[in-house]
Amino acid sequence: xxxxxxxxxxxGIGSLYAGLCDAQSQTPxxxxxxxxxxxxxQVGTTQPDWWDSVPLAYPPTLDLDWPLRDNGPWDxxxxxxxxxxxxxxxxxxRWREGIKLVNHLMIRNKDDRAKLARSTETLGRxxxxxxEDYA
Length: 135
Hints:
mainly alpha; 53% helix
């Protein structure tokens, strides 16, 4: 979302400026590629605006080890993937909590390559699909 907002602002300002100004007397403000990339790096490495206001919240019964295979019955109170599917995804008010949970799991599983990859992919998908953050 940060990158999408940034691009929209840069493009929008340029379009607005070009539409309001006489193109012969003034040219629209432009940023160099280096300036845009620096701005993307700066914005892309910061937490979302809402991050600190959202608590890390999940059921105490949730298995934070998030095993790669779960052979038990469907239980969204225990299995992280099932919790995300049943509780987080269909409830927009829980999307940010879910993102924060998966970020927590990514950090928690940083030494397990398979779980880290799954957490990273899930986090990216949640930002993309739920928050429409295409960065």
